[in-house]
Design brief:
Blueprint lengths: L11 H13 L2 E2 H10 L5 H4 L12 H4 L1 H17 L6 E6 L5 H10 L3 H6 E6 L3 H13 L5 E3 L10 E6 L8 E6 L2 E10 L2 E6 L21 E4 L1 H16 L2 E10 L9 E4 L2 E3 L9 E3 L2 E2 H10 L3 E7 H7 L2 H9 L4 H15 L8 E7 L12
Parallel strand pairs: 2-3, 2-5, 3-4, 5-10, 10-14
Antiparallel strand pairs: 1-7, 6-7, 6-9, 7-8, 10-16, 11-12, 11-13, 15-16
The structure holds S-adenosyl-L-homocysteine.
Length: 369
């Protein structure tokens, strides 16, 4: 595996980025992230096996089947809330290995009319992961359709779910210098990729906090693709009924800080080392997503901590039901998985759920005050 890899080892993508930067100058962190994750040949998601014990990180649906099952029940409830349309899109953004959708649809079998009405869309850029999703869902008798982006999914009443998708979307960073905000860029130093700072101020189209509110060295992050996507989802839900559940790690309030992070083989990794061989993400700024959803005329709820959300959806009762008749070892595994996804010291607090809805619907399950 990659455990013995060294951050000084150059990947083909790094070589190419270095020569590009040497000829054209430093690039934005967003351009770096987009290439590192989705370069057609050497991007991380296009060329690696990211998720699971053999990959670099694991996620809630991979840890516990209960995660997807509770979301399946949430989706059925939400379908009722949007008026139980006879035909609707069930969209997942970034389905990874397909575990969430598989578990959610198994739980939804209790309402066959829901399954009959659902047209399943998976928004996925990686051919490798599409292949895995097809395989996994075929076993469950499900034939989804794929799209490259949410914009490519045909308009219809929609339920949408996204777990650990928004954290992959490319951020830009701005650093407060003596003279004001400057974009933080990726350049080359001593033959390796290194952070640098733009010499000129960003254009006025970039909205940044008042420079007096920041100290020298403070970093402010903007995720334009994430904000545009929330806006597109909100607009779709104003035009037609819909509801989205977005779960990710991040902060509730906008603030200053560098949240760019990379992992390889389940351990932290320097963000500019071995692009294409390590995952690279940033925290989601829920404040800004909420503001964008409201501005587009949608309703939005949360964020609520993942642990509280799963408790309200009945994780304890589901755990009891699943444990009945199981061996002591199986029960211990079920409890360990549930603990990991819901405990505040593990994934229960840092991860948060946000709901965006058509205006005027019932309050969504799990978001009660
Ligand atoms: N939801 C899954 C996987 C999370 S990893 C889970 O919880 O296990 C992120 C997923 O989003 C991967 O499937 C990745 O290929 C996909 N992805 C990331 N950015 C994307 C983009 N811009 N367009 C389409 N898919 C993307």
């Amino acid at each position: 595996m990659t455990r013995s890899a060294s951050p000084r080892e150059k990947t083909p993508l790094e070589e190419r980025l270095i020569s590009l930067i040497k000829s054209r100058g430093p690039i934005s962190i967003a351009d770096y992230m987009a290439d590192a994750l989705f370069h057609p040949h050497d991007g991380y998601y296009t060329s690696q096996t990211p998720i699971g014990a053999k990959g670099d990180f694991t996620t809630s649906p991979e840890i516990s089947q209960i995660f997807g099952e509770l979301i399946g029940a949430w989706l059925v409830q939400s379908w009722e809330d949007i008026g139980a349309p006879k035909s609707f899109n069930l969209v997942e953004l970034g389905p990874g290995r397909g575990a969430l959708m598989q578990d959610a649809l198994r739980a939804a079998r209790l309402r066959p009319v829901f399954l009959d009405a659902a047209r399943i869309w998976l928004v996925e850029m990686s051919g490798r992961l599409r292949h895995e999703q097809r395989r996994r869902l075929k076993i469950a008798g499900i034939a989804p359709e794929w799209a490259d982006s949410f914009a490519d999914v045909p308009a219809a009443p929609t339920l949408l779910v996204a777990n650990e998708f928004f954290d992959c979307l490319p951020i830009r960073q701005f650093v407060r210098t003596e003279t004001g905000w400057r974009e933080r860029l990726v350049g080359v130093e001593a033959g390796h990729l290194a952070f640098t700072t733009a010499t000129v101020p960003p254009p006025p189209s970039v909205t940044l906090p008042d420079k007096a509110s920041a100290r020298i060295g403070d970093i402010f992050e903007i995720n334009e693709p994430a904000e545009s996507l929330i806006e597109a989802i909100a607009q779709a839900f104003v035009a037609q009924s819909g509801r989205a559940l977005i779960i990710d790690y991040g902060h509730v309030h906008s603030g200053f800080g560098d949240t760019l992070q990379s992992v390889r083989s389940h351990a932290h990794w320097p963000a500019l080392a071995s692009p294409g061989k390590a995952d690279i993400t940033a925290h989601v700024n829920f404040d800004r997503l909420l503001a964008r959803a409201f501005a587009a005329g949608a309703a939005a709820h949360g964020p609520v901590a993942q642990g509280a959300f799963l408790e309200r959806l009945g994780i304890a009762a589901r755990l009891e039901r699943l444990s009945a008749g199981k061996s002591a070892e199986e029960v211990a595994d079920l409890f360990a998985g549930a603990h990991r996804i819901s405990s505040p010291t593990q994934m229960g607090e840092l991860f948060k759920a946000l709901c965006v809805s058509s205006p005027g619907l019932n309050a969504p399950a799990g978001f009660e005050a």
